[in-house]
Each structure stands twice: as structure tokens, then as C-alpha cells.
Amino acid sequence: MELEVQKALRARLIGQSAVSELVPAAHILDTNQRPTPKPSIILGESQSVDEGTSIHRTRTRIFHTLHIWAREASLERAKAIGGAVRAAIATGRLELPQGLHCADLLVTSQRYMRDPDGEHSHGVLTVEILVTEARP
To answer: Is the whole-model pTM more than 0.85?
Structure first.
């Protein structure tokens, strides 16, 4: 389920011109190291938590982290990218594969910081996705 959500998040980001004008689609990726392409959005860590609202266990809340990287001394570009990402997330529910439904989707936190190297800015966004699963 987490992988399906990650794929849907990436599709949403590359499909929004406000995001793709700031970060090329090839720079929105899943990697475990500081990315070479700048700017970039890294599809980061995720966590799934059962909502506990149903004995059927069909509701899962997924917390997904997005990392924004830009080569700049300020935080201006990272914040602009973060704003575009937030707006893209707010456009509606994610398209998930059959059997999964995005019941809720929102950015719950945004943080921006300067990298100690003095050349990069870094943004960290947390996206919450409530997924319901259809079971036979």
C-alpha cells in the first residue's frame, strides 16, 4: 500500500505544472542519498498506521515524507517548491489502484533549513494519506 501511495504522489507532483516548472520530473525520485540533481524532490520515508476505527482493519493512515533540495544560500527556492507541492496535494484525492481509495490527503507539516555546507537549502514535508481498502 505504501508503494502505491508513493507512486500516486509522484504522479501528482509531475502532473502539476506549478511543481514541474520548479523541479523537472526526472528530479522527483526515490533515492537514499543526498541527490545530485538540484533542485529535487526526494520521495522519502513512510509509515503506515492502522486507524483502529474498524474491526475490519480496512483504514490505514500513511505518513509520507518528501525532501526538497535546492542549491541556494537562502531558503527562497525551497519554500517556493514546498508551496507548489502543498498546492498540488490540495487539488484532490490521489488516484490509487483498484481496491484502494484515498479518503483523505493533506500536508501536515513543512520545515525548511539551511544545510551545514552553506550551499543548499532543505525542506521536509509530511503528507498524511488516509487509505481505505476494499476487501471481498
So the answer is: yes
